[in-house]
Amino acid sequence: MPNTIPAIQPAATQSTGGLTNSLMRQGATGPGGKLGKDEFMRLLTTQLRYQDPMNPMDGHQLAADLAQFSGLEQLLNINDQLGVQKDQGDVILSAINSSVAMGTIGKTVIAVGDQVVLADDGTGAIDGKIIADIEREGNATLELLNDNGDVIGRRQLGYLKAGTQQEFDIGSAGNGLQPGLYHVRVMVPDASGVATPQTTYFTGTVDGLSYSPTGAVLTSGPVEITLGVVRRIIG
User: Fold this and answer.
1) Which residue would you say has higher pLDDT here, 193 or 58?
2) What digits encode the pLDDT tens for the residues 217-230?
3) What is the pTM (predicted TM-score) of this model?
4) Which residues contact 186 (CB under 8 A, 6 or more apart)?
5) Has residue 211 been placed in a domain?
6) Quick one: 117 and 189 in the same domain?
7) For residue 175, what are the domain limits?
8) What is residue 101's three-state secondary structure?
9) Strands across the sheet with 208-212, in order?
10) What is the CATH number of the domain that holds 196?
11) Residue 52 covered by a domain
12) Mind listing the pLDDT tens digit for each residue in 5-50?
């Protein structure tokens, strides 16, 4: 019986892009379908092993592919190093935030928010304070809201100039309400007469500290404040 000569594999002369496409067709990519350095080298050595000895891979193209591989490996190493540095930076930032948070206990903070605590002043009157950035001039109105978003108290603040941060007493808007936590907004009409809310700030003394998956949380009575919304620490 005559000897059978096995078929010679076709020449492997494609570029790195061709190598990548071939690798994808063979399902030899790394996790997530990404070309890793191990997969790249395995494909390259496989093609060298099965190249046509009568028509071997071009030396210049092989050098270009190896250069591409070297660059890929360096980029992967840099990416790994950046990942380690990010993790270390997150740990340091968390430690700094925790230190800052502990330092606010007993101090007054001003933080972006629409919450206000109404308290009995000892004479039976209910009052509280709110700070607002007045973004446009006009006749302003202070409104108190419950947790459902219903307006339950209102008082006129008069004409306010733009560009000034001001502190307001809740005053008559709290008439008939019980002490507790409410929401507040300061409304100023725009050029078309439509009332729009201004940026408001909660102000209170920090009396506690807790930690959540996103970091330190300050407490001032019933109000919880994340460090990211704190704008000033006083005292």
Assistant:
1) 193
2) 899 999 999 888 99
3) 0.59
4) 130, 132, 134, 140, 141, 142, 143, 157, 168, 197, 198, 200
5) no
6) yes
7) 111-203
8) helix
9) 208-212, 215-220, 223-226
10) 2.60.40.4070
11) yes
12) 444 444 444 444 455 455 445 545 555 555 566 776 777 777 777 7
